[in-house]
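Board notes (copied after class):
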Amino acid sequence: MEFIAALQNRVTPWSDGLEPSDAELEAIEKELPLILAERDLLDALIALLDRPATEFDARRIRRARKRVLVARRDLANRTAGTPVSGDAA
């Protein structure tokens, strides 16, 4: 029986740097409201794939789209340095 061994280095070398850095985690935290709003919109749209839309569904999608737009606006304002509606004191 012959043993076959890998003659090449691994494509992705294992290192301790595989975890996200603090800066990356902070960026994700800043974008989390937008991520959650987009998830809710996607959830509402997926629910309509196998059935016709009702008035309730249309309202749910409209509200989810509005939350996405608000989250995008707040994220853009935050990155531009202007105070967000809840941050102004």
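Comment from the instructor: The CA atoms of residues 74 and 85 lie 8 Å apart. The longest helix spans residues 22-47.
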